[in-house]
Amino acid sequence: MAQITLDEILTILKEHHLLVDSQLGDLSLNFKQIAYNSKLVSGKCLFFCKGNFKPDYLLAAQSQGALAYVSEKQYDNVVIPGIIVTNIQKSMSLLSAAFFGYPQNGLPTIAFTGTKGKTTSAYFTKSILDRTYGKKVALFSTINTVVGTGANDVVKSSLTTPESLDLFTNMNSAVKNGMSHLVMEVSSQAYKKNRVYGLHYDVGVFLNISPDHIGRNEHPTFADYLHCKEQLLVNANICLLNADGTHIKDIYYAAKATTQPENIYIYGRTAVVSELGIPVDFQYTSLEDSLTNNKIQLTANTDHAKRLGIDGQYEVGIPGDYNEGNAVAAAITSALMNASVDDIRNGLAHTTVPGRMEIYRSKSHGTMYVDYAHNYGSLHSVLNFLKSQAPKGKITVITGSTGDKGIDRREGLGKAINEFADQAYLTADDPATEDPKVIAAKIADHIDKKKVAVSYIADRKTAITKAVTESQPGDVVLVAGKGHDAFQKINGQNVPYEGDAAIVANLVKGL
Ligand SMILES: CC(=O)N[C@H]1[C@@H](OP(=O)(O)OP(=O)(O)OC[C@H]2O[C@@H](n3ccc(=O)[nH]c3=O)[C@H](O)[C@@H]2O)O[C@H](CO)[C@@H](O)[C@@H]1O[C@H](C)C(=O)N[C@@H](C)C(=O)N[C@H](CCC(=O)O)C(=O)O
Ligand SMILES: Nc1ncnc2c1ncn2[C@@H]1O[C@H](COP(=O)(O)OP(=O)(O)OP(=O)(O)O)[C@@H](O)[C@H]1O
To answer: Is the CATH number 3.40.1390.10 carried by domain 4-99?
Structure first.
């Protein structure tokens, strides 16, 4: 049973130079529960005070049975003793891992980071490894959290990378449920907020980086964003890097600082990483690239890459040329986890990811795509691909941009629409406390209206319906940004929303 003594807590905190003061005396005191939300406290609990915390929460935790609290400051409104630390997030992560007996030791873990492609690559990898390990692969992704094989072991995720205490709770469940591996996404925020502090991965994959998540509540600068993402490599035994992205020099040096070159693998479309003057370990080329799928040739160039024995041709079941790179990352990662070539082949050919390049065909209208693209990098990639595949069709984009975060996305979405679309219906996408019409106007500021017809339709479903029903054979309609999200975030509330995919699926039935 999970538990932790005061002795162990203080030792860990001292070792990591986190302990300021402890008001507890009895070192054998044993905590049977840990929590950071007062609503979840039951008996013999160690309670963490973190984030936008109010003293009343601690009072509530005390009345529910908390024995002590960990905090960066002392609270005088309670009688239970405090353990005062310099960093609550780091402390919570280390103590959560210890409380559950370090579940990561029983669960080989593959972690993906990158501005784009984390979810897709994680799904490709799970699809392959599930074939090798009898569907026993746990998954912590933006979409779902999978900790076992039963229906109740799959839940919708609320964050890309969970809060540390939840992360180790889920890892512990996965181990208890007999899962063989964990595939997880690690966001830059996870490092910024120390949600994965102290966690080491068997394989860490760096997919790409482009400006995103910079602004209030996220990263102050691009350098900070890059630094946070690179922490994944510092904490991985084997590093896998994409040579085709930007900042490869920084990324490679970050990997090399803590990992032997023998355990670093680089993949890319060209034979040499020009910025570094070294060969890629794996080179891939596109053999086919259509609106429905891709075919790639994968070739190992270096000795340690050749040892994995995965040279060959692979079909990739999700369209979009950028998904070829995601598939290659998953193939190499899975080979490192001993997947066979057959499992890689079948896994890549038969993966679907909810809300990522989902295709809906109509009989007498255009072809509709529902995709999660919501910044410049992703919308550019998707539209570039769709335009190359349907050069004569009219391309209509329905999108909005989130309120209260990712402000720079508005310019990026406008630019990508301007480059490739013929028409845009701007609408709401999680406006939070902002006016979606004002957000749409910011996107529209970066679109040349002489080139692209732009209008604002407040209701997202109305905008989608108009675009889909107006489309003609050969046209492409891209509904971008929300995928299967079943809510719109408005003024702190999750307001129920049918979801882009459900709306489009229903519409095409009658067309
Ligand atoms: C800025 C930030 O990182 N905030 C995160 C943080 O919030 P917080 O610590 O301030 O917690 P809070 O929810 O404000 O509440 C304060 C504390 O009071 C406690 N409480 C609250 C009410 C009560 O009655 N009793 C009580 O004890 C809460 O449990 C909490 O511990 O911890 C919360 C979970 O415990 C997160 O939900 C929340 O993420 C915010 C909402 C969020 O969405 N962040 C985004 C930017 C994010 O992290 N995104 C990345 C993906 C980015 C990417 O795509 O790359 C992600 O990993 O998801
Ligand atoms: N390697 C890639 N390069 C550029 N764009 C990509 C790549 N992979 C996916 N995309 C685009 O980004 C969107 C999101 O993909 P995915 O969910 O796999 O990425 P993510 O890193 O998990 O994203 P997010 O951080 O937004 O959750 C896709 O729907 C697609 O439009």
So the answer is: yes
